Amino acid sequence: MRKLITPWRLIGAGLLLLAFVAGVLLLLPTGSTYIFLPDRARLVAPLVDVEGGKPTRDGGGIYFVDVLVRRATWLERLFPSIREGGSLVPADALNPSGVSDQVRRTTSLRAMTRSQSIAAAVALRELGYEVTARPAGALISAISPDTPAAAKLRPGDVVVAADGSPVRTPADLRRIVRRGSPGATVTVNVRRGSELEQIDVKTVPDPANRRRPLLGVLVEQEATIKLPISVEIDAGNVGGPSAGLAFALDVLEELGRDVDQGYKVAVTGEIELDGEVGSVGGLRQKTIGAKRADVDIFIVPAGDNADEARRYSGGLRVIPVRNFQQALRALTTLPEKPPS
After folding, report:
1. Residues 100-128 pLDDT 10s
2. pLDDT higher than threshold 60 for residue 272
3. Is the model's pTM score more than 0.70?
4. Strand (E) positions, the chain?
5. Out of 2.30.30.60, 3.20.20.30, 3.40.630.30, 2.30.42.10, which CATH number does the structure's domain 137-222 have?
6. CATH architecture label of 34-131+227-332
């Protein structure tokens, strides 16, 4: 027995054990922590089919950026820097509604579908088409079960006013709620089926910023949209509304407007029916993803998003915008692209 248990065999067994433990740490996901990772920016044009549209071949293009989101492994939780651009996010910050991953994913894909319709409407209006597009409020898609809203609001409710001010878009609702402080009461008017109800709801602190109030609901744009021509956008399994501005710009490009001026332009930002560009998440990862695609310019929502993008831009030109028209002006005033 003594001859069989040699120092080399003990060392070998120890190395195998370490390899096993490292493999478990590398592959086994945690239950309460997610990781945000960069995803290389991708061209929008292959995803968009516009009736009467034509692809351009000037060397430029509109790119959209996404963030890979998954449960972090134990190794990533201990050493997040092993993944370039990786950011750990607690589950309650990612899912402020307290819903499951499946429900969150379904909601995210639905938000992407709605953002595509809104983007097409904004773009076609810019080109002079007659578009029927009426914002009709903020549609509640999910509610946190551990907030006061859970006892009073329901998925499918449409918020049409809050504290006496009309709510036509999700951005309207966010602005009104953030006027107060966590724990304050907001009076919302909701359309529930054919009925209109007035409900008082107490706000809660945002897990990501305890000084910022939330209702504890996920909302989407409720709107009636009818397009004069067919616009189909297939983003696959990419969810969320943050590619809306990129889609709108690309629809213009495909219908003959030289939007990109020959530049490779990465774009992020939620777009509303009035053309307003709303803030999005994951700017650190999106900026890295834009740089990986070797784009020339990165258009982002003004404010905190632009500040974060500049921190990680590494020389990439960042252009902040507040609305669709500002994005168009920024692109049309670019200097002529030098030949490559």
Report:
1. 566 655 666 666 677 788 899 999 999 99
2. yes
3. yes
4. 29-43, 48-50, 61-73, 87-90, 132-143, 158-162, 165-166, 185-192, 195-202, 204-206, 209-214, 217-226, 231-233, 264-267, 270-271, 277-278, 297-301, 317-321
5. 2.30.42.10
6. 2-Layer Sandwich (3.30)
